[in-house]
Amino acid sequence: MKRRNFLKAILATSFTIASTASVLTPLSALAKVGAKNRDDWLTTGSHFGAFRMKRKNGVIDQVKPFELDKYPTDMINGIKGLVYNPSRIRYPMVRLDFLLKGHKSDTRQRGDFRFVRVTWDQALTLFKQSLDEIQTNYGPSGLHAGQTGWRATGQLHSCTSHMQRAVGMHGNFVKKIGDYSTGAGQTILPYVLGSTEVYAQGTSWPLILDNANTIILWANDPYKNLQVGWNAETHESFEYLAQLKEKIKQGKIRVISIDPVATKTQNYLGCEKIYVNPQTDVALMLAIAYELYSNNLHDKEFIKAYSLGFDRFVPYLTGAEDGIAKDVLWAEKITGVPSDVIKALAKTMVSGRTQLLMGWCIQRQQHGEQPYWMAAVLATMIGQIGLPGGGISYGHHYSSIGVPSSGAAAPGAFPRNLDEGQTPLFNNEDFKGASSTIPVARWVDAILEPGKVIDANGAKVTYPDIKMMVFSGNNPWSHHQDRNRMKQAFHKLECVVSIDINWTATCRFSDIVLPACTTMERNDIDIYGSYANRGVLAMQKMVEPLYDSLSDYEIFTRFAKILGKEKEYTRGMSEFDWLKKLYNDCKADNDGKFVMPEFEQFWQDGYVHFGDGEPWTRHADFREDPEINPLGTPSGMIEIHSRKIERYQYDDCKGHPIWMEKKERSHGGPGSDKHPIWMQSCHPNKRLHSQMCESQEYRQTYAIQNREPVYLNPEDAKHRGIKNGDVVRVFNDRGQLLAGAVVSNNFPKGVIRIEEGAWYGPVGNDGSVNGGTEIGALCSYGDPNTLTLDIGSSKLAQACSAYTCLVDYEKFTGKLPAVSSFNGPLEIGV
Ligand SMILES: Nc1nc2c(c(=O)[nH]1)N[C@H]1C(S)=C(S)[C@@H](COP(=O)(O)OP(=O)(O)OC[C@H]3O[C@@H](n4cnc5c(=O)[nH]c(N)nc54)[C@H](O)[C@@H]3O)O[C@H]1N2
Ligand SMILES: Nc1nc2c(c(=O)[nH]1)N[C@H]1C(S)=C(S)[C@@H](COP(=O)(O)OP(=O)(O)OC[C@H]3O[C@@H](n4cnc5c(=O)[nH]c(N)nc54)[C@H](O)[C@@H]3O)O[C@H]1N2
Ligand SMILES: [Mo]
């Protein structure tokens, strides 16, 4: 059938389901799509680190870590599977009913996985027509294309930028503020310490190792989480963790990890551990503060010289205000930490130099602002902020923070926004009274309750009436909370577009799906070592894009052409023109400071090294002179009490940090009589969120009966008749999933872990893929966000609260459905 008659014909024909997912093309058949023969080692980079790769017969054959990477992650073994796997999107595809009825389609069919193959031209034209329809009927408040996520590394092809620039050339759209990672933390800390802190470079590891007597790892698992980075990761932090391990062994540094579970870092370092009941850290911090205060161990000089509002906080601490002293006995009941342990911990913190290293997990829960604020109060009372090896950090588990930066200028990126003077086709800025920016994790709320006014960070946000969403470089059907609520919201959307490499659940619940290629199928450059900024890395194409996939640059160049704006989009430059420009701009910025060869030489070498950086202490300048170097807070001081926040008059974020009960909490908290188990959905040890779940062979290194592992406490599991390797049904009133049991002493009673990023694979009661549309459908693989709670952290940050989540579980005894997550759609033939 001629392609141009395709759409007409499709409207006239009845459909049969041709086959479930196409069979994976054997590697040998892919050989013919290989790039021109260059079978020497090529260089590329990824969130997982930099690699050298070698082809054989046009197929990626060997992958080895970059020479400078002394601590490569095990995930290197999953890299090849990112390119070759059955989840790859092969062609542009359109959901069957959307192809038939466009914006009047039956949106309840979304998720039934029936898609039709179309040409790139057809897909991009449909995409543009949908945008036309939305802009015409609703204006920019009807379109949300503002979500971001862990798009692949690379300064040129960074896919979300491409999508937003191109869609922005068509018209304006709703955007987001904040992120899922640190939503609560990055909102509260500017009030307290004057910057987000979470994304700031921290005190250098060498200074911490030389000066700290005690390191507190609070909700922090760096040994797991430093395997990946925002840019190509160098893994230098692992050298410092190795030194730390040695120092612990020699008795030179004490490391105390405060965490409900035994973490990978604890097991690696062999450090001390304090178990705390989930979500109760603020109570523990308050009791430490009470100990310090009542024993006169707090640093009164420092508090006076560098902070504001301690006097407003003390009446709450002592109970003068509410009749409850936040003492160790009070905290013991809530936290499960024995009073003598709290007392000893308080004493330890003020004897010698103490470095607090906070993880991010405890602010991804209801009232997640509070532990971050209270930790800053504690650090202020200890009085070592601004000293090497003392004070507080909120980032040493992330992207090389703490590794001294080279100080070089990093290469810039392809522009996300329109160039100066460019205007969109639909030049309309009328959001009809709704907000044009909404808190990142509240978009599902907005779809469900358009027009609703909420509080957010001292302002009012009016939810726009979102009718269309475009996703690129993020996977909301992995990262967002409460799948069944998302299904309800998606029923209300007229059109959803996804640009991705793989058939993620987000694509499954979309109408137009566009295949992007991986970084191994295009040329790019990246910063080597996020915060370390160790150099510039060439990302050299290994193979041509598989199937019909294209680079994000090419996808949106073609799209811009349909808009009549190709030149505006590309500035008339090719992929290599851009790479040269980004490189040469960086070279000019570093002129006279860092030597960079000509582009051609760099491309041949694959790398430019900037050298090591200088050790540095966070907040040292503030400590040195708080008047000349004030913090960015309203007062320039550390704000233990914030007048600004107090003036907002929020019931869930007051003028100073307080302990508040959670909506759901295990260990005797609300909801625990019905669903007694706390589910933590921590970041995966062998993935980056949902990325690499598709890497088939590698997934088998951890999957249990093809399912995502659920980590269980031995006693709890035994009580439920469950042993290692069983399939378990985990459930609450929001949803249900299957997962494979791993019984482990690392997990205490009342706590389970299912790592986020496990691919959602809903099935109907009969096990069918189509049945995945049902509200309450069973997830066949084990996506924890089938169960999580979708509420804002508080009126302040309105951030993701995924860790406020109770569940129960049982041995699964029904007929085991096949996993529906990985094989792509049911392709409809005509
Ligand atoms: N329950 C629970 N939920 C969580 C969390 C949690 O701890 N618990 N953590 C939250 C946090 S901190 C985060 S950061 C988010 C992460 O959420 P996301 O950033 O959405 O997660 P990823 O799985 O990395 O999604 C990236 C998507 O981009 C696609 N992609 C990668 N490279 C390219 C490319 O070159 N082109 C195109 N077009 N697409 C590409 C990938 O295939 C993938 O589908 O999850 C959040 N959700
Ligand atoms: N391998 C790998 N590394 C990653 C990522 C990945 O996907 N894979 N993602 C990256 C991203 S985007 C982010 S945002 C960071 C996430 O960084 P974090 O959010 O810090 O990481 P998590 O591992 O989810 O959680 C850290 C620790 O917090 C503990 N914890 C959870 N709840 C509580 C609590 O109530 N109290 C206490 N005391 N402890 C608690 C957990 O048990 C866990 O050991 O990781 C980054 N690094
Ligand atoms: Mo994150």
From TrEMBL:
Limits of the Molybdopterin oxidoreductase N-terminal domain: 44-84
Function: Reduces trimethylamine-N-oxide (TMAO) into trimethylamine; an anaerobic reaction coupled to energy-yielding reactions.
EC number: 1.7.2.3
Cofactor mode of binding and number, as noted: Binds 1 molybdenum-bis(molybdopterin guanine dinucleotide) (Mo-bis-MGD) cofactor per subunit.
Endpoints of the signal sequence: 1-31
Chain ranges of the Molybdopterin dinucleotide-binding domain: 678-805
GO BP terms: anaerobic respiration
Record field: catalytic activity: trimethylamine + 2 Fe(III)-[cytochrome c] + H2O = trimethylamine N-oxide + 2 Fe(II)-[cytochrome c] + 3 H(+)
Principal place of residence: periplasm
Species annotation: Colwellia ponticola
PROSITE patterns found in the cross-reference section: MOLYBDOPTERIN_PROK_2, MOLYBDOPTERIN_PROK_3, TAT
Gene Ontology cellular-component annotations: outer membrane-bounded periplasmic space
Gene3D superfamilies referenced in this protein's UniProt entry, alphabetically: 2.40.40.20, 3.40.50.740, Dimethylsulfoxide Reductase, domain 2, Dimethylsulfoxide Reductase, domain 3
Keyword Signal: yes
GO MF annotation terms: electron transfer activity; molybdenum ion binding; molybdopterin cofactor binding; trimethylamine-N-oxide reductase (cytochrome c) activity
Gene name linked to the record: torA
Cofactor: Mo-bis(molybdopterin guanine dinucleotide)
Official protein name in the record: Trimethylamine-N-oxide reductase
Pfam families: Molybdopterin, Molybdopterin_N, Molydop_binding
